[in-house]
Write a structure and sequence with these properties.
The complex is a heterotrimer of chains A (297), B (317) and C (553). Chain A contains ten helices and no strands. With 297 residues, chain A is mostly helical. Chain A is elongated. In chain A, helix 3 runs parallel beside helix 6, helix 8 packs antiparallel against helix 10 and helix 9 runs antiparallel to helix 10. Helix content of chain C is 31%, strand content 18%. Chain C contains 17 helices and 21 strands. The chains are: A mainly alpha (297), B mainly alpha (317), C alpha+beta (553). The interface between A and B is large, with 55 and 67 residues.
Chain lengths: 297, 317, 553
């Protein structure tokens, strides 16, 4: 499984001999991995913020005040300072969790679904169908992801929906390639041959034998893309594409605050810190999952 | 083997055509007038129609596409609308500058990435592994263009150790590999190297862990192979994939340099793309994206072929 | 030594400093070099008709070239008015008001040594007006013809006299001619000859000649081009034989570098890499001034408005609402938010300007009066007026569009106006502006936020209020116009005496303010930051600034 180009270090090895305690073992191994557990907790906290941030936040994320522009951390009434329009940073960071995670997770989820379908179909069917699907995927894969994201966003225009579309399109090719690769390996295994010989139809075979084996490695690979997606989304707003103001979103905040770096460097760095924490958490989680699933007999 | 190689090369051709098509489509879907860079908004409708005809934008899209591809095959990528200069020359010069930056960045990333990755893989599942893995992941967890801005503020504005932008005191045309010029390369290259570093570290770690975990290593050790011998063995087995990943990271940096080059005003393909996007300069946009994508296709092809030559088991269906 | 000498510490620094010292040429130690960082992403076109808007004219127009008439850039405390340039005098023909006679200044030479005479002027007019001229360049037509919409042809009368013909009587012509720069025909012809014979199509030969000319230009301005690296730097040297003794440069060399990213420009200034940056980020200004650099600002003929829709069904059709909105914007508050980097408008031009005209509607911040007007118009806090504005996230002249528009949105809320912002990309906004509010690209908006230059009457006023400038002809995006205003415009257009023309334009301006087809929000102040080493800097009330009169320590 040595496809260069896709970060295969993020894809766990396929396991075919599924004993009864496989998932229990994985979970137990994961539980012993302190760093991965910590990452999982951080992510749960972030998801909590995303769901309840609106209620928990101390102030109105849209309330501006030009008298209180760019106040430092520890300012009265604004523990994390204020931004370039006088809005409370703590509130915007909390409420921004929702949109930021949304921009990170949604494209990956959509790409996971679309890419897996394409890859599994191509991998299982083989032959000309495989060629057509994979060659089309390769055409898009030929564009470096940053370039493709910017070109698509530039073509579609700014805005959340358009960014989601362009980011999803950017992630489909790598996921499809991984999906096709693992499916091809499964397809050639004996038990699949046996199932085909016994007359089961393709749909059943895929559902019963293939999916169970391939979805987990693809899933773990996909989680490693979440951090990339968040950072790409932030890059889009740097160029004026992507999320539009005044929505609180960390990438957008990082960009609108960038000229304030001279006036209030720590405040301007806060959204970057949030992106940083979230990315590391997802990267560690994904690493932990992959490690836990790499059980050597 | 030869048939596989031939097939692989042939497969690249329809992909190249597909790339050209997607590139053209992307650029033309964008709203906005392609002549906006030379036509202020107060121009009369007659003037607009006149210029549109002179530049061939009134022809149907498939005709424009065919014409563009035909000329590109002959090496003519058209002329930039905003500047009147040939796209080919500009892109080539820009590619040279970005290649210089990307190569240095990849080397830095490869060096540190391999270091961290090897250490992590060798001492896998220990705290050393965790620390090294964490360090290598730091780089890919922050928007790198923002990291670049922070570095500029610290090292240029505050400490005044390094210049803030540009490709040399006299421009990139007179580049010389001396300190006076290389100092312009340092900050952008370091900023760019964090992503390859992260990815290469992870790959090398996985490779090293994989190789060391194989049974024959135990056998070799039992036979009395020294640590150095094991090290050499690991390097020999890991090198092909690691180098392949490095090669592809170079391609990725080449195509993804737009944000960093904007921050550092580095006159490469990213900087070119930025102003092409801003000025809606269609020929320049198309030409640059096409060259970058083709480069990537060829790079992918070369890496696949080299990998297959080194390890025939890898051959794709 | 004028190259970068960063402060260094430690062994590494010492070695670096030694290398630098060895590699620098001692002979240039006395040469004064001014390094400028521009906001443009590429060097504006250098062949005579710059692109990139007025930043182009500022850096690759006026320094390198001259025009028949020019703006007086020597005063900071008075309006910048028109003065003779290459033409010493001009007059319209008494009988046929479409003909103008311009008398040229004798003894002016181009950088390549050839004479600047009537032939050269006619040649330059033909490069954008005459499709059959060998030197015709379509790419230059856009930026020139649109700024001189009525100019039709030029004719030589004698070696130093030119006759210009317009399509209709147009008293604005002398002002428009500040946009036509004179490139050297002799030098261009040499470039044309140098185009390889394998290129046979005359249009293609001309195009290549112009491209070669852009890389090695020859104008008549106070500076001449010495080096051109596309997208990276433009180097100019002083023209010591310039025809205006007062404007012979005392700075030997000027380097211009494109730096579109505001933080990069600030860093470049602070680290000593450049001496002058355009448009520093307002929040970086305290740091910049703290470190000893100087900030120059002055009110500019620049208007940052919301242009209102007069299409059927628009909420702005009621004048009470238009006046209310103008009374409901906290402009001083906005100025504080921008760190003082804006001027508070009273109309399109400021009081004291020749075209001011004393309008009876006073634009100020009076929430009570605004609320009263809105109530009269039938709105209230419970039943607000809903409007949608198209804005951009960035763009030349747009200042800080997002914070500013959000600020105005908040301000107007007090007067029962609910604003929805439609943020689109700058180029798209520009294009939509040309298409007008009735075009689907307007996306249901009732106002558009596009800033504009107000240096000449057509650009400042006429194109927004005439029934003859509805889209797609020009930028009357909102389809505003009345017979009364058309009459005032015609008056101004046919008043060929400078004084009476200004009086007519003042009447027009007063009526425009009274009718309020705009919400006037700000004037840009053109901030630029420079090293204290640059002296004799005069920032006039203009988009342009004269580098030729500056000196450097």
């Amino acid at each position: 499984m040595q496809h260069a180009g896709v970060d295969l270090a993020k894809v766990p090895a396929l396991r075919f001999e599924r004993s009864a305690g496989y998932w229990e073992t994985v979970l137990r191994r994961f539980g012993r991995d302190r760093l991965a557990l910590f990452a999982a907790l951080v992510i749960l906290a972030l998801l909590g913020l995303a769901l309840f941030g609106g209620w928990l936040a101390p102030a109105d994320p849209y309330a501006t005040s030009m008298l209180k522009r760019l106040k430092p951390i520890g300012f009265a009434g604004h523990p994390l300072g204020t931004d370039e329009l006088g809005r409370d940073m703590l509130t915007r960071l909390m409420v921004g969790t929702r949109l930021s995670l949304f921009m990170g997770i949604t494209p990956v989820v959509l790409a996971f679904v679309a890419g897996s379908v394409l890859g599994v179909v191509a991998g299982y069917a083989g032959g000309p169908l495989n060629t057509v699907i994979m060659r089309t995927v390769d055409v898009f894969y030929a564009f470096p992801s940053v370039l493709l994201a910017i070109a698509l966003s530039g073509a579609l225009g700014a805005g959340i929906t358009n960014s989601l579309i362009s980011l999803t399109i950017v992630f489909i090719p790598p996921i499809a390639r991984v999906a096709e690769s693992v499916t091809t390996q499964v397809r050639n295994r004996d038990f699949v041959e046996a199932a085909r010989a016994s007359g089961a139809n393709a749909f059943t075979i895929v559902r019963v034998h293939v999916l169970g084996n391939v979805l987990s490695p693809i899933f773990v690979y996909a989680t490693s893309l979440i951090a990339v997606s968040m950072i790409l989304a932030s890059g889009l707003s740097f160029l004026g594409l992507g999320v539009r103001p005044p929505e609180p979103e960390w990438g957008l905040m990082l960009n609108t605050l960038r000229t304030a770096i001279y006036a209030q460097p720590w405040v301007a760095a806060l959204p970057g810190a949030m992106i940083f924490i979230t990315s590391i958490a997802f990267n560690l989680l994904s690493d932990g999952l992959r490690s836990a699933m790499d059980i050597k007999s | 083997m030869l048939t596989y190689l031939l097939r692989r090369v042939l497969y690249a051709l329809p992909i190249m055509l597909g790339v050209a098509l997607v590139c053209f489509a992307l650029v033309h879907i964008a709203p906005g007038d392609p002549l906006v860079s030379i036509l202020p908004p107060d121009a009369s409708a007659d003037l607009q129609a006149q210029l549109r005809e002179l530049y061939g934008f009134n022809k149907p899209l498939p005709v424009q596409f065919a014409g563009w591809v035909w000329r590109a095959l002959h090496g003519d990528l058209g002329t930039s609308i905003a500047s009147g200069r040939a796209v080919g020359t500009e892109v080539l010069r820009a590619v040279g500058n970005t290649l210089m930056l990307a190569a240095v960045a990849t080397l830095i990333g490869f060096f540190f990435g391999s270091l961290f990755g090897f250490v992590a893989g060798y001492f896998r599942n220990s705290w050393v592994d965790r620390t090294a893995s964490l360090l290598s992941v730091l780089g890919v967890s922050v928007p790198h263009y923002w990291l670049g801005m922070v570095l500029v503020i610290v090292f240029s504005s505050q400490l005044m150790w390094l210049p803030a932008s540009g490709a040399g005191p006299g421009g990139s045309g007179e580049w010389v590999w001396d300190l006076e010029h290389v100092q312009f390369l340092i900050l952008p290259a370091i900023t760019m190297s964090v992503i390859p570093m992260g990815i290469i570290a992870r790959t090398v770690r996985a490779l090293v862990a994989d190789i060391l975990g194989q049974e024959f290593i135990v056998g070799l050790r039992a036979k009395g192979l020294t640590h150095l011998g094991v090290f050499a063995h690991v390097v020999k087995n890991a090198a092909p994939t690691a180098l392949a990943v490095m090669g592809l990271q170079l391609g990725y940096l080449l195509g993804g340099s737009i944000l960093i080059e904007t921050v550092f005003s580095w006159p490469g393909t990213g900087f070119l793309l930025n102003s092409a996007i801003f000025q809606r300069d269609l020929p320049l946009l198309q030409g640059t994206i096409l060259v970058l994508a083709m480069f990537f296709v060829v790079l992918n092809l070369v890496v696949d072929v080299v990998q297959t030559l080194l390890d025939p088991r890898i051959a794709r269906a | 030594m004028n190259s970068v000498v960063p402060k260094m510490r430690g062994l590494c620094g010492a070695i670096a400093a030694a290398v630098l010292a060895l590699s620098s040429t001692g002979a240039l130690a006395q040469e004064k070099t001014l390094r400028i960082a521009m906001t443009a992403a590429d060097i504006p076109r250098t062949l005579g008709q710059p692109d990139q808007g007025f930043e182009g004219n500022r850096f690759t127009g006026i320094p390198m070239y001259d025009s028949l008439t020019q703006w007086d850039l020597s005063k900071a405390d008075a309006a910048s008015v028109l003065i003779p340039g290459l033409a010493t005098s001009w007059a319209v023909d008494a009988k046929d008001k479409t003909k103008w006679v311009f008398k040229l200044r004798p003894g002016v030479k181009f950088h390549d040594g050839s004479e600047l005479n009537a032939d050269a002027v006619v040649w330059n007019a033909r490069k954008v007006l005459d499709k059959d001229a060998p030197q015709f360049d379509a790419s230059q037509v856009g930026v020139t013809a649109s700024r001189m919409p009525t100019l039709r042809s030029a004719k030589k009368i004698d070696n130093l006299t030119v006759e210009l013909t317009t399509s209709e009587p147009d008293s604005f012509l002398p002002i428009n001619l500040t946009n036509l720069f004179m490139a050297s025909p002799t030098h261009w012809e040499a470039k044309l000859k140098a185009v390889p014979a394998s290129v046979t199509d005359p249009a293609e030969r001309a195009k290549q000649a112009w491209t070669a000319f852009a890389a090695d230009a020859s104008g008549s301005g106070p500076f001449k081009m010495t080096k051109f690296v596309p997208r990276e730097r433009l180097e100019l040297a002083a023209n010591k034989t310039y025809w205006d003794a007062k404007r012979v440069p005392k700075i030997d060399k000027v380097v211009m570098i494109p730096m579109p990213e505001a933080n990069s420009r600030t860093a470049a200034l602070l680290s000593g890499q450049v001496d002058w940056i355009e448009a520093p980020a307002p929040d970086a200004v305290p740091q910049i001034t703290q470190r000893g650099f100087k900030l120059y600002t002055n009110a500019q003929p620049h208007v940052w408005p919301w242009q209102l829709s007069f299409a059927p069904g628009s909420p702005w059709l009621d004048i009470k609402v238009r006046h209310a909105a103008n009374l409901c914007v906290d402009r001083e508050g906005l100025k504080t938010m921008l760190g003082g980097m804006m001027a508070v408008p009273k109309g399109t031009v400021p009081p004291g300007h020749p075209w001011w005209g004393n309008p009876k509607f006073d634009i100020k911040y009076d929430v009570k009066a605004a609320q009263a007007l809105m109530t009269q118009a039938g709105y209230s806090a419970a039943k607000p007026m809903k409007v949608k504005v198209q804005v951009s996230a960035s763009g030349s002249g747009q200042m800080q569009p997002l914070p500013m528009n959000e600020f105005v949105q908040q301000s107007l809320k007090q007067c029962y106006i609910d604003v929805q912002l439609d943020v689109i990309e700058w180029n798209t906004l520009f294009t939509n502006w040309r298409k007008g509010v009735k075009d689907p690209s307007a996306n249901g908006s009732d106002a558009i936020n596009v800033s504009f230059a107000a240096m000449d009457p057509f650009f400042a006023m006429v194109r927004f209020v005439s029934t003859k400038t509805f889209p797609p002809v020009s930028n009357n995006w909102g389809y505003y116009g009345t017979p009364e205003l058309d009459g005032l415009i015609a008056d101004a257009r046919t008043s060929f005496d400078d004084k009476s023309r200004d009086v007519a334009l003042a009447k027009l301006h007063a009526r425009i303010v009274e009718e309020s087809p705009f919400i006037w929000i700000a004037h840009d102040v053109g901030p630029r930051a420079m090293s204290a080493k640059v002296k004799n800097v005069v920032q006039p009330r203009s988009w342009f600034i004269d580098i030729a009169t500056m000196t450097m320590d």
